[in-house]
Task: structure prediction
Amino acid sequence: MSWLKWAIGTAFLWAIQSVSTYYFTTITLINSVAVNTFTRGIGLLCVICYIVISGLSSKVQKDIGIILSTDLFFMIVSSILMLLGNVFLYMSYAKIPHNKNASVATGLSNICIIISTMLSYLFLNGTLSLSSGFGIIVCFIALSIATTGGDISAIFSHKHTKHNGQHDKNGVGHQDDDHQDDDHHDKDHHDKDHQDNDHQGREKNKHSNWITYALYSAVFYGLGMFSTLALAKYGKNLNSISSSAMIILIEFIIGIIIYFSFKNKSISKTYAVKKYGLHNYSRDLDNLCSNKKFILNGILNGICEAGGLFGLLNSYKGVSNGGMADAITGSYAIIQAPLLYAVYNTPLQMRTMLGLLTQGVGMYFIQK
Result:
């Protein structure tokens, strides 16, 4: 089944991307919205290069014309929902306690699988066999096992090991604001506001916020996947690369509008941007674009995001219910866990491997 291959490919790409994002939001404490704008800009450049090299320019131009004339509203809605899903997940990464693997947050956000499956069934006549439905349930159980050990209450544990403001041996310790000496932060970051609020613009030590942000992410991802599925189903003659390019372009344009709007300090204060996760947004975006290490990581992130979105759209076109594809792509949370362990030595338990095996069982029933 070609849709299954696309979905599995997407899961691997998004797992790599999530580790790259973790570096930005948790290791270097860069604003989540700035990370999204930066990586979407690079992803857009990668997509454009691919279109030119593969000789798809005329086809993509034709498709974009169709989208602008018939599907622009739904494309914008889909892009905004996916953007919010991304940003809230990134916020969750930034706020998660350092003694937890970030795949726990990803697992929570994958509640979106249930949302997208039900919406597809109710509004898009998405058929679902008993075997496929059982497979989706098994995949969701696999995510629960891998990320929380099957005990949802485990995510509410707030035990923290001591650290002195530097990254601990797991590489994910949240630095105290007074010790943020990364080369992308200048002295202005150490003002009164920054002492009272973290780099995402929220109060320090409220670690339970990461749970709320992960759940927000699930809602927006679920709605975004459903609207993206609708575009893929009703725009069958559109090349998936065209739809991918438009979604990334719209997200990037929104980010640039925010950037220039909140460059103005009076506007920032008037609209209290710190309350909406936009604290230091413009400054961080400037830093991202001027640091070579950030740019290289951004290229990896952008390629994986664009490639994953392309794979997701292709998987939607060959499946009877989008929730089936979402259940497979959502498995990136399980792949993400060992990758984070390998790169940043974050906590990893055997239940992750058990979850991976359970995921394989679920995939078997979905494609059966």
Notes: DSSP finds 15 helices and no strands in the chain. Residues 79 and 247 are 5 Å apart (CA to CA). The two ends are 10 Å apart (CA to CA).
